[in-house]
Amino acid sequence: MNPKIKKIIVLLITIFIAIAIYAWFYPLNKGYLNVTANITNYSIASDGQSIKCPQKVCKIKLKSGSHNVRIQKDGYFWEDIRVIIKRGNVSKATTNFKKIPTLKKDSSTPTFKEEVKRTLPPLLKDISPIAPTWNKSGTALTFVDKKDNRLKIWDKKNGAQTITVLKNLGKNFNLNWSLKNKYIFGSDDKDVYFIGVAKAKRKKDVLTFMPKNITLPSKGDYFLANDDKNNLYKIDLLKQKVEPLKSELNLQNSVWDKYGKLIFFTYDKVNNQTVINYYNFSSNKSNVIKYMLEYKFEKIKKDEKGDIYLYNSGDKSWYKLDYQI
To answer: Which helix (H) or strand (E) holds 17?
Structure first.
């Protein structure tokens, strides 16, 4: 073979091998990361490159190896993940964006759902009922008849029907309906009563504290109550028990949101800030939603749409809480 041709062939082979090695370790040494998010229009950034993702599912091409990837969108908490990319393979990641909580001053006064004031039926006005209490829908009224100490339920169809007898009631006696009207809970200075409406059954229990600030959740057969030191208790209507939750929470400064979460605020005098929290029943702990320095809020309410507002007496304004749990 002509030496000149031989040199050309060797050169070509060398070039081919060099190109193959380069392609293998660089252009072809790549894989993909597939990201699935719970929102659209986010971005993925890694190795100095960033791509926009108009859809919930997005793919980015990365070289083989380990990478730090940031998934982000304005107004949301970002997420940093570590991924291993293999040549020609697709790695997968899932992220659930959460909004960064905001508290913004409302330019107008929110419209809150006012509690409906209902009058006693004419037939009951003469008997001076004890602790008359309407259910949430206003279709039934429960009370204790002073004349015979009987707990009764009145409605338009059946009139007043006796459920059980309650004697020796304390001065601060009150009644509460459960969400689906299956149960009635009664309490005074020392005693509590668990009353099942359908079977007309009751159970009495003696407490070591006086329940106050009793609140009804947006779902579930239970109430929450404070004692005078803001210790929190769960009044379980199914178990017919009052259980201490080993947590302090002033229910006067709380409201149930539209998702069934208990939102409340506390004021930290030392740091001069309001802390907005939600109560986590699974862990029996409070989780912080937002800190507000130099703001002292006095009220928390839910408007007709279910949005949460806090009232600041300093500038006499309502502030809307935008959050995601």
So the answer is: helix 3-25
Residues whose CB falls within 8 Å of the CB of residue 45, separated by 6 or more in sequence, listed in order: 69, 70, 72
pLDDT at site 252: 93
State which of 51, 80, 98 marks the end of a domain.
Answer: 98
C-alpha span between 185 and 194 (Å, rounded): 5
Q: Give me the pLDDT at residue 79, please.
A: 94
CA 254/CA 29 separation, integer angstroms: 56
CA distance 134 to 141: 4
The total of other beta-carbon atoms located within 10 Å of residue 168's CB is 7
Instruction: Tell me which residue range forms the domain holding 78.
Output: 3-98
Q: pLDDT (tens digit, 9 = 90+) per residue, 279-325?
A: 988 788 889 999 988 888 999 999 988 999 999 988 889 999 999 88
What pLDDT shows up at residue 121? 84
Residues 34 and 119 in one domain: no
Residues of the chain with pLDDT under 50: 18-25
Residue 90 and residue 147 in one domain = no
Strand order of the β-sheet with 308-312 is 102-105, 317-322, 308-312, 297-302
| Whether 31 and 172 share a structural domain | no
> Looking at the structure, do residues 149 and 22 belong to the same domain, yes or no?
no
User: Residue 152: is it exposed, middle or buried by C-beta count within 10 angstroms (0-12/13-18/19+)?
Assistant: buried
Judging by beta carbons within 10 Å of its beta carbon (0-12, 13-18, 19+), is residue 233 exposed, middle or buried? buried
DSSP 76: B
DSSP label at residue 116: P
What sign has the CA pseudo-torsion 105, 106, 107, 109? Answer: negative
Number of H helices, E strands in the chain: 1, 27
The kind and range of the H/E element at 3 are helix 3-25
Q: Which of 98, 133, 166 is at the close of a domain?
A: 98
